[in-house]
Design brief:
two-stranded parallel sheet, about 140 residues, two-stranded antiparallel sheet, Arc Repressor Mutant, subunit A
Length: about 140
């Protein structure tokens, strides 16, 4: 039993049959049928009652479906947890005070909290030489 087999099993149940599940999964019908049979052999019980063109879950199939949903949910959660969530860290911007005031967002230059926005925290401050007091002292 592996994750792919559980995904195929879930697709067969949700689509109501092997043909539609194969189309949704972009697989050939024989592959889906083989994977379902292998899964049944792996757990040691039939998972479906085959009734003409319909597949009905057996009680064991219902139990496995519940476990499959939980397992596949945890797999998705684990994938999300390890994926990079975009740029992180701090971006330090240096600019002349006049440029910073007109071109950069206010909170970045004033140090005001940004809230919970995605992406790196942007901070900055005008260079000492660009501050008005520093210019007055240089004559």
């Amino acid at each position: 039993m592996d994750i792919a087999a559980l995904e195929i099993f879930r697709a067969v149940v949700s689509e109501g049959g092997i043909t539609r599940a194969a189309e949704r999964l972009h697989r050939v019908q024989s592959n889906v049928t083989t994977r379902i049979r292998q899964l049944e052999e792996s757990v040691g019980v039939p998972l479906f009652i085959r009734d003409r063109k319909r597949l009905l879950l057996t009680p064991a199939g219902e139990v496995l479906l519940d476990y499959s949903e939980r397992i596949l949910g945890l797999v998705q959660e684990a994938r999300q947890a390890v994926l990079p969530q975009g740029p992180r860290g701090r971006l330090r911007v240096g600019a002349m005070e006049s440029t910073a005031a007109s071109r950069l967002p206010g909170p970045a230059m004033t140090g005001a909290p940004r809230g919970r926005q995605p992406g790196p925290a942007m901070t900055g401050a005008p260079r000492e030489a660009d501050r008005p007091a520093a210019r007055r002292g240089r004559r």
